[in-house]
Amino acid sequence: MTSIVRNQWYVAAYGREIGRDLFSRTICGESILFWRTEDGAVTAMSDRCVHRRFPLSQAPSHLVGDTVVCGYHGFTYGSDGKCVAVPGQTRVPRTARLRSYPIVEQDSFVWVFIGDPTLAESTRIPRAPWLDLDGWTAVSGMEPLAARASLLVDNLLDLSHETYLHGGYIGTPEVAETPITTEVDEDAGVVYVSRRMADAACPPFYAKSTGITGRITRWQDIEYTPPCLYKLHSRIAPAGVLPNEDGTDPDAFHVEVVYAITPETEHSTHDFWAVARDFALDDQGVSDFLAENNRTVVLQDVAALDVLERVIATEPDGYQELSINIDTGGLAARRMLTNLAAGVTTDSVSR
Ligand code: FES
Ligand SMILES: [Fe+2]
Prior knowledge:
- By secondary structure, this protein is of the alpha+beta class.
- The chain has seven helices and 17 strands.
- Strand 12 (181-185) and strand 13 form a beta hairpin.
């Protein structure tokens, strides 16, 4: 059975990646062509010509105004994927149409709907407003992962691995030592995992970017909306400093770490990552530092998960994992993903 959840929105790209050049990316096993029309709207359609399947992203295929011309024999398609011209005859076959995909551009991402397009409108798209909001500065990137998406979900829902896999970057002993609380909102389809450290060492990653020198109160509140969007609300303040009763929090530093987990195939994943902050907004040095460090951390995860994928590919059936308290969030996420893949809606789960 496929592990890819269909009838869902996935992040296909950052908006900045798509312009007037033909851009192709495989999402959930489907090869998709993206480009912007002359008025700036993103379009998405199958990257296989209906004639002899030449990829439309491949030169000499090219755009002419708001049409794309296949580089093999010249079939020409409009922005809705419908073929408007074929060579050697005036009649265009009625079935000459590329599959087109619903698209929403939001929060700096281009979201694509994979599955039955009639379900797109009624299916939620989770938000990550900080990536594109006044008062915040974001850095972002994408790393290819040669591992299935569920391994990245496991990884992100258990941050105790920070202490080991990312020691010296974002990991300190308190992360692995502090117990977590896990909550599952079945109706909303969200998994929450919180780890709140009252008195922790300030990892170099944050000491350098916030200027805090002493010990810190450190909160890590995860919010995962299966299948694609993961948010880590991170709060750092000098030890003992808590938010005000009215919710304002002027003495703390907030970092929103966002991952979009998009399957490329059953066994590979697009690992989109972004880090938004509400301090040192115009400081390019802090941006460079956060971008470089987060990319390093992501690549440490990528290296470990690529190994796991190879291990799983060669192991005999029936290997039994052992789970402990730190895995509660990951197990809840797996359960939701399995239900979504089986077509069980959150509604029918809660009844
Ligand atoms: S393969 Fe595209 S026109 Fe022939
Ligand atoms: Fe990690």
